[in-house]
Amino acid sequence: MKIAVLPGDGIGPEIVAQAVNVLKGLQLTVEMTEAPIGGAGYEAAGDPLPNATLQLAKDSDAVLLGAVGDWKYDKLERHLRPERGLLRIRKELNLFANLRPALLYPELASASTLKPEVVSGLDIMIVRELTGDIYFGQPRGISTLENGEREGINTMRYNESEIKRIGRVAFEIAMKRNKKVCSVDKANVLETTELWRQVMIELSKDYPEVELSHMYVDNAAMQLIRAPKQFDVMVTGNIFGDILSDEASMLTGSIGMLPSASLDANNKGMYEPSHGSAPDIAGKNIANPLATILSVAMMLRYTFNDEANAVRIESAVKKALSDGFRTADIYTEGTKKVSCSEMGEAVVSALVS
Ligand code: NAD
User: Fold this and answer.
1) How far apart are CA 6 and CA 67, in angstroms?
2) Could you report the per-residue pLDDT of 293-346, keeping only the tens digit for each?
3) Catalytic residue check, 135
4) Which residue among 275, 295, 326, 343 is best mutated to probe the pocket of ligand 1, counting the most ligand atoms within 8 A of its Cβ?
């Protein structure tokens, strides 16, 4: 197993260190090599995705990423900003399928801002397309019109094959779950997503056992809060998925609980927490490392086909939670508030016991 470890910025290095300890705790034969990305890449090589980092990622079986970004880079030219490094590595590695499970651990039902009866038992898989849509579509930019007024342009576009390949990922995952796919679009207003809906319907003929439904994104945002347990697999484009998966994360108690996998066509993947670099709490050793640790479980499951060790990590996380350990973001009265590193240690010792 060859893994590129890219801690990135903000809380990235703190949470990745804990995930690496958990991986080491499994005592597998793993080769891990660290490299800078995001603001750290800019500092080290003047580029948010240095060539050496990209090469390392290409030469590895999987990438473990922390997070990128810091407000101090907001004034840099756009192509030098940390987030560009992240978008580029996803594109360069052709990681078109982003899987974001939103699973509520029963121990955290009271940490959610929603009523326990609304969220308990929640288990949604959000499948987000990651390399297309308005985040990549051309033309884009800010220009000045003839009358001197400035105009900003982004372009939402998807072609048929891009929609088909992400749809297939969603249907395949649904086959291993409750066989329900909800495709989220805005087909009443946007032609791009009208095509999205048509292609999903065509594709569903290959999966007669799966029940396909459609929902407009505004309604989906509402339904996720109103009755989230109605969903099994949700599939959607890049921008809608970005927003809905953050929303879904709060159902689970904290964004610090949500792992993610981004896969190419051969299941090579990049694994990272769904949250950002949280500059507001960076360096304080209080971040929740569980999303990153659970991302390692996804890595073992999807890239290395090692279900047993994936489950071992997930069980260790459950044990740490049922033993009452909580980082500040998921803390409730009567539980034990611990630091980022103490939470990591709790998971490692649960792994052994
Ligand atoms: P964020 O996800 O970093 O933080 C949002 C809020 O959640 C903050 O209050 C933060 O403290 C909290 N939070 C996030 N992760 C946490 C964790 N593990 N434990 C406890 N609390 C946690 O989003 P933001 O503040 O909008 O963005 C901060 C920076 O991160 C920006 O530069 C942004 O561009 C970048 N960002 C990066 C990624 C990524 O690397 N994948 C994703 C989103 C945002």
Assistant:
1) 8
2) 999 999 999 999 999 999 999 999 999 999 999 999 999 889 999 999 999 999
3) yes
4) 275
